[in-house]
Write a structure and sequence with these properties.
Length: 259
């Protein structure tokens, strides 16, 4: 098994670590394949309630594509790589459970694109993010042009991409690229604490809420409301809904099982 991805299940919160610190956790083909396989496995693992993605070491979350490897690729191989990275990040975005990106350092190109595929982004005070592809003669190819515009607006997205701008953590928070900046030295602790709070809630409800937000935001309001109703209907026959009501009556924390 590839050691480019490390996983640790901490009581239902899966910590997924990109493990190429010597290369700033850049995405070579081995790491990308391992990430895709891990995400697929997580999708069907009932013991995983929330996922936290981070990078090994303190320097980088993910510096994007491994440019040394990229230089050896033919044009056809580059197309295949872009196809795989785009699909893998879409798999992350569509995981049926919440995903938090703990951005612990540099996140450029594909690193920022991976973070944007997560549901929530928490940055270390030293984090620096950016879609810097235009400075290399290309454009973001793993969802960056689309997800960034949806997060920060078209005008700001164009500014950042056209300038290949690197954004420090405080500005990333200001423009909405990240949800939170952690205290110094507390990134993983704060990400895991948030994941633990999310994990208390009902798994089916979390899955349906994520689905409704992800897909509803891409359609007109009337269609989005209909989608929301259908997602709500999925939760009605669950044991977790009845447990939530019973726990409320008994004034105790609910114990959800995902059923």
């Amino acid at each position: 098994m590839s050691q480019t991805i490390l996983t640790e299940n901490r009581d239902g919160v899966l910590l997924l670590t990109l493990n190429r610190p010597e290369s700033m956790n850049s995405l070579n083909r081995e790491l990308l394949a391992a990430l895709a396989a891990t995400v697929k496995e997580i999708s069907f693992d009932r013991d995983v309630r929330v996922v936290v993605i981070t990078g090994a070491g303190e320097k980088a979350f993910c510096s994007g594509a491994d440019l040394k490897e990229r230089a050896t690729m033919s044009p056809v191989e580059v197309k295949e790589y872009i196809y795989n990275i785009r699909n893998t990040f879409t798999m992350v975005e569509n995981l049926p459970k919440p995903v938090i990106a703990a951005v612990n350092g540099f996140a450029f190109g594909g690193g920022t694109e991976l973070a944007m595929a997560a549901d929530i982004r928490i940055a270390a005070p030293t984090a620096v993010m950016g879609l810097t592809e235009t400075s290399l003669g290309i454009i973001p190819g793993a969802g960056g042009t689309q997800r960034l515009a949806r997060l920060v607006g078209k005008g700001k997205a164009k500014e950042l991409i056209f300038l290949a701008k690197r954004v420090k953590a405080p500005e990333a928070l200001q423009i909405g690229l990240v949800n939170q900046v952690a205290a110094e030295g507390q990134l993983l602790e704060e990400a895991m604490a948030m994941a633990a709070k999310i994990k208390r809630n009902a798994p089916v409800a979390l899955e349906m809420a994520k689905y409704a937000i992800n897909y509803g935001s891409e359609i007109d309001l009337a269609s989005g409301l209909a989608l929301e109703s259908n997602c709500y209907a999925v939760t009605i026959p669950t044991k977790d809904r009845l447990e939530g009501l019973q726990a409320f009556r008994e004034k105790r924390p609910p114990v959800f099982t995902g059923e």
